[in-house]
Design brief:
The protein is an alpha/beta fold. It has 2 domains: about 240 residues, 3-Layer(aba) Sandwich (Rossmann fold); about 25 residues, no CATH class. Strand 1 and strand 2 form a beta hairpin. Helix 3 runs parallel beside helix 5 and helix 4 packs across helix 5. The chain is globular, with a radius of gyration of 20 Å. The protein binds adenosine-5'-diphosphate and magnesium ion. Adenosine-5'-diphosphate binds next to helix 1.
Length: about 270
Amino acid sequence: MIEYRSVAKTFPDGTEAVHDFSLVLPSRSTTVLVGSSGCGKTTLLRMVNRMVDPSSGQVLIDDADVASRNPVELRRSIGYVMQHSGLLPHRKVVDNVATPLRLGGVGRRDARSRALAALETVGLDPTLADRYPGQLSGGQQQRVGVARGLVADPNVLLMDEPFGAVDPIVRAELQQELLHLQRDLGKTIVFVTHDIEEAFLLGDQVVILRKGGEIAQVGTPAQILADPADEFVRSFVGLDRGRRTLRIQEVDGKRVVVDADGRAAGVLA
Ligand SMILES: Nc1ncnc2c1ncn2[C@@H]1O[C@H](COP(=O)(O)OP(=O)(O)O)[C@@H](O)[C@H]1O
Ligand SMILES: [Mg+2]
């Protein structure tokens, strides 16, 4: 379990990125922080592994304040996947994936075999292992980033807009793979995105943020759709434009569900 207790962050230049944020993120499930650019998502995410320290308040992992942990060790114990994969261009794919293990003192041979296994876990062909990141497609690079996040088998995985830079088809593939992986692995995932569709697809718990990391609403996707907290949430999730509105039409005695444009979406059982 990760817990934020009245966390705030003001950067040295005076920018208040997070005003007062409290939240519990249950273990072995995915919490998605979703909000517009600049609302404080990355700042909140990086507080978990102490890439950012809060100006006030605490972040706890399993009831222990991360402030009492050595930042380097803490970072090694937590998986981190960045938007632009963050791969080192002059190191082979397998060495990129093995980096967290090598930094943690794992021997070269052992690290390599575990890195190869992690590449397989994320669906990458082992023949790509000895290429350089620049010789892979964007989607493959993102997969390598996920493999690196998972290689040390961390309990907590932080993902900062990891699929933001790839085309929509590859993005949909990566999202499905993450869902499958999470079904098997059961990590505590904190996932950041500005895309509400991605948030609803991946999140067990979805946190809709306003500027300053202010929580507009927390809930399951179904709870948020059923009972949006206010106009901001209605608009953010697209309820105001009728985009989410489904209607029932009787067709040959069956109840067919149609979307806002009248297209058939399914049949009620
Ligand atoms: N190191 C920093 N120094 C000063 N301001 C920062 C720094 N990092 C982020 N900010 C500011 O804090 C706010 C929140 O940033 P961020 O957490 O990166 O938002 P998001 O990830 O939601 O786009 C923004 O106004 C951003 O410009
Ligand atoms: Mg960000």
